[in-house]
Amino acid sequence: MEPSLEVRDVRKTYRGVVAVDGLSFTVRPGEVTGFVGPNGAGKSTTMRLLLGLDAPDHGEALVDGSRYGTLDRPLTRVGALLDADAVHPSRRARDHLLWMARSNGIADRRADEVLDQVGLAAVAHKRAGGFSLGMRQRLGIAAALLGDPPVLMFDEPTNGLDPDGIVWIRLLLRALASQGRVVLVSSHLMGELQDTADRLVVIGRGRLVAETAVPDLLASVSRDQVEVVTPQRSEAMTVLANAGATVTVQAADGIVVEGLPGSEIASLLGAAGVTFVELRRHRASLEEAYMELTRGAVEFATADEDAR
Ligand SMILES: Nc1ncnc2c1ncn2[C@@H]1O[C@H](COP(=O)(O)OP(=O)(O)OP(=O)(O)O)[C@@H](O)[C@H]1O
């Protein structure tokens, strides 16, 4: 059976506050799946439900088709980084991993292997209490990798990491996915996943907003927009707006034009004597795609509430 993470019609409330509502999605192996949504959208709650740290009020959260609590030697089935501070500060890094390994029938040598893999071999005998946030994140990742599980979940893994650490995480996630594992990584920053995720599960207010491949999402919002780089920005904006285009400012010397083909933009600017340095098809960033998606979600939520 292929490894998987699956959430089926899950609802979870905390004393009347709805954290997750009617949420369903499946995470496939061999890809990095980004799990995105604004703060409070329900990402951590969903991950906790998948790990059996909380029980859903309704629905099921499954690892390889089973509830976490029913898994034998669970660390060999699913690894997770949820909270970098989950390690007791007085515990030494290696001892922490050994304790976890022994509780799951995992060979001691794995503790050394994963410490090496995350770059913590030199501090294996130091207490976690003296670690920086970045080092604690790495220790949490080592713990997730300990049982060599086919399913991995990381909640905001780049928190506290420096730029080198962020690049390292991206490469690690890609490598884990290319080994055929299920990799779910949450972030509230869409841009962070731009070069990392193959697919996205987007949630807002505990509900699914989109479950999509990254290229499809980008294509759906890129529309027919043209980017114009010009030293005469305001003149260009006037000419193009007068011709019926929607024009938005992009950068110091750039505008994004919607509603006119590139060839017509070029001839309009030429006829008006407005110089431009570059004219190219605008490719939306993941951040822009996300803004568009969540705008839709807010409208949907409002309409939905009105209908009740
Ligand atoms: N243990 C809890 N007790 C009470 N409310 C909770 C609990 N856990 C989560 N919530 C609430 O559920 C909602 C979803 O929170 P959750 O932490 O899952 O969101 P998130 O998407 O992970 O956000 P962030 O990006 O800030 O981590 C929030 O309104 C939060 O306040």
Automatic annotation (TrEMBL):
Gene Ontology molecular function: ATP binding; ATP hydrolysis activity
A Pfam family reported for this protein in Swiss-Prot or TrEMBL: ABC_tran
PANTHER family found in the cross-reference section: ABC TRANSPORTER, ATP-BINDING PROTEIN (PTHR43335:SF4)
Organism of derivation: Cellulomonas humilata
Record-annotated ABC transporter domain positions: 5-230
Alphabetical list of SUPFAM superfamilies matching this protein: P-loop containing nucleoside triphosphate hydrolases (SSF52540)
Homology family: Belongs to the ABC transporter superfamily.
Annotated protein name in UniProt: ABC transporter ATP-binding protein
Lineage: Bacteria, Bacillati, Actinomycetota, Actinomycetes, Micrococcales
Highest taxon listed in the record's lineage: Bacteria
